[in-house]
Amino acid sequence: MLEEANIFRNMPRSKRDKEISLTKVKKKTRESRNQLISEIRNAADKYPYIYLFDLENLRSKGFIEVRQHFKTNSRFFFGKNNVMSIALGKEPEGEHIEGIHKLSKLLKGQCALMFSVVSPKEVFKFFESFHQEDYARAGDIATTTIKLEAGPLTQFSFSMEPQLRKMGLPTSLEKGIITLIKEFVVCNEGDTLNPEQCKILKVFDYKMADFRLKVNAVFGKSEGLKVY
Predict the structure, then answer these.
(1) What are phi and psi of 18, to 5 degrees?
(2) Is the Cα dihedral 54, 55, 60, 61 positive or negative?
(3) For the Large ribosomal subunit protein uL10-like insertion domain, which residue ranges apply (predicted)?
(4) CATH, domain range 33-136+210-227
């Protein structure tokens, strides 16, 4: 028994057993928050314009393209509305730049700030033409009715048949070819799409989402705030 006790005592501790100090976690979180506030205030000092975007229909691929377009003349911040509000100033007496607290009050929901040297005229011109089609997500509204006609689905290999059937499609294998036994309505225009419908639409390459970024407000150091 004594030998067993010594064996267990001498065994290396699992990394999972490592204790993490909550004080260190809080300190790291506080430092990260303070750094973000500092970066936002530096950006506010550096750039003449601040644009507020609505990200409710965010698609990462589309947003990456937007950031790439403005990467040489702008800086983006998003994800922490309360921290961004603190950085800008929530009230007149605590605002970082005169009048900017009005923009701070508009930070609600999923949104982003773009600090930029690009004029509003050029920014709006870009976003009027920018959009990107993408696959619908659960909860999106179907923009059109999609019907799949009965017959062979030659675009798929035979190994896909169980997966299609699991999605609810009436399929079978006929001479090694996936066949839709009867007409199948994936969705009707105006439907609120569920996860299974979205999977089917993606498999058949139907894109119903149109990614756009809407500018909700612009703050200019000399012009003040304009809400759209």
Answers:
(1) -65, 130
(2) negative
(3) 136-205
(4) 3.30.70.1730
CA-based radius of gyration for the chain: 27
**Other C-beta atoms within 10 Å of 181: how many?**
12
140-209, CATH topology level: Molybdopterin biosynthesis moea protein, domain 2 (3.90.105)
- Exposed / middle / buried, residue 218 (Cβ in 10 Å: 0-12, 13-18, 19+): buried
* Alpha carbon distance 117, 44 (integer Å): 11
DSSP E strands: which ranges in the chain? 49-54, 74-78, 111-116, 132-134, 146-148, 151-152, 171-174, 177-180, 184-187, 209-211, 214-220, 224-227
Phi-psi region of 79 (alpha: psi -120 to 50; beta: other; left: phi over 0): left
3-state SS class at 192: strand
Provide long-range contacts, Cβ within 8 A and 24+ apart, for 40-43: 40/77, 40/83, 40/84, 40/87, 40/88, 40/113, 41/87, 41/96, 43/75, 43/77, 43/115
216 neighbors 106 (Cβ within 8 angstroms): yes
**The pLDDT of residue 20 is above 70:** no
**What is the per-residue pLDDT across 45-81, written as a single tens digit (0 to 9) for each?**
999 999 998 876 667 777 888 889 999 999 999 878 9
Each residue of 73-128: pLDDT tens digit? 999 998 789 999 999 999 999 899 999 999 999 999 888 999 999 999 999 999 88
Position 210 scores a pLDDT of 80
The pTM is what?
0.69
Beta bridge partners of 192: 141
